[in-house]
Amino acid sequence: MIKIIMLILSLVYVSHIFALEPLAEEELQQILGQGGVYLSGDITINETGGPLNDVSDVSNPPIWQQNCSVTSTNKRCGARIAVNAGDGENSGWLVLDNIRGRFSFEGMTLKTRVIDTGFGGDGALFDSDVLEIGLPNTISYSNVSFTLANSSKARPTDVGFNQTDILNVKIDGDVTLRGNLLLFPTGNP
Amino acid sequence: MLTHIMINSLRFITLAVLPILAHSDLIPLNDSTLKKIDGEGIGIILEDFVYQAGEQANGGTFEISGLENSSGQSVVLGISQFYVAGSNSNRGVNVIDNPVNLGRLQYPYNIELRDGNDIAITDKAVLELAAPKKLVDLSYFQTSKENRVERRFPGKQAASGQRVDRITGLDETIFSTRGSERADLGIRFDLEVGGTDAQSLENHVKGLAIDGSYVRLWGGEDRVEAEVNFNLYAEQIEFRACDSIGTNCGDSVNFNNIGIEAQLGDGNFQPVTFEVTSAGQFSFLVGSLEGKCPIGTTGGCEAGSAKLRLEEYYTSGPSTNIYVDNVRIGTAPVNTVGNFGSSTISNLQIQYLEVTSHDL
User: Fold this and answer.
1) Looking at the predicted complex, does its ipTM rise above 0.95?
2) Which of B26, B44, B45 would you mutate first to test chain A, the one with the most A CBs within 10 A?
């Protein structure tokens, strides 16, 4: 009995195959793969000196323990990015130092879009797809700070370390950022 | 058993026949479609873009510190407002509902890896960061030329030729076309010296375009080398100082209808370098032309390819032109005190430039 049911089912399967029909161009044009992604983000960089810093239990010191509260000026609390545009050994480093704080945003969108009108007449000529990143209107900064500096060595622990801080930037509050960021391939083959 | 074989056979036949049943058409791509697809670079456009930050605009804290004045007092710049918006923002008053399109679909901001041999940077892969191209691929400066016979250096042979005499004007159509793509941007900040508010300064740029600007970067002998083309066109750049509360402002200094076309560096013949020295000091260098040709007995270049290359450099190499239609204080009319008229720097060529920082 089961075998008979299976046979019938397999015939049903075959009849479905024969129902496949090619879609005409006009029909295909009606089908839009709409959709997108909605993103919210909350990024914290070394707000309390990074994940290794733990002052909760002084009797059992982990790798290091530092006071990295918001008001602390301890430079070991922040992240450091050092860039060398020369030949390494014989040149110095441009540094973003003591990077700390928290950024958060909500409502960033990600989708594709066809542009064939607008843009002062460029849209019709362009007539192509773009990746659209919808900016989140507001980005909240919470005690974000960084220092721009020139340094003789990549790390503060290197021998002969010498650093000149140029300026410090501190942002605590909202920043308005509206619009869409459009990305697409270009180039001259 | 037989049924099993039947089912399996049926499945096999079905799967074998399936591709024949699927009528999909391979359509040839025509030239106009193909030429759009190459994927060499990434185009970037900011559509309906608005940016605004600052203590007065959005509350909170936004400050730059670590600076000192000549008496050793610490100076803090509290940023009241920093904005990027569409034109006619009225000094940053009309920002939020006044967006701007940065970049255009046909000529976007572009990040691209280029073959150095195509752009006179021999045998290098070049990273190019470029602003939108100009609508017209020509300088916006109108110049007049004249025939001159002069000595390039005292005691050397006189040479004659057509030289740019002066800039007679700027093609000001750039200030009246495609207004939605020209940005207003500005910054207002309060100077806090030694803990007390000292003064409030403002800087506003109206109708800014940087069409045709680019930075090209490649790996040189032992450092990053660059070629920079910086173009700036603005309807107005304004500087203004106010009292510590930000009211009672003085007259503003206005630079109206400005054009700057600055070219720095000439491929790897004269590269621009940007680095920090081993002593931790910042250094910016436009390469020297010294020793680019073998010196002959008369003190000049010996004839040959090196000399031809230098001649090409002087004829059509990188140069800088700056034109300001009108500089004035407040609204001072032409031919009055406070109206400085038009200013021009034309055909400036940099043969060597070194800028370094020093600790005070």
Assistant:
1) no
2) B45
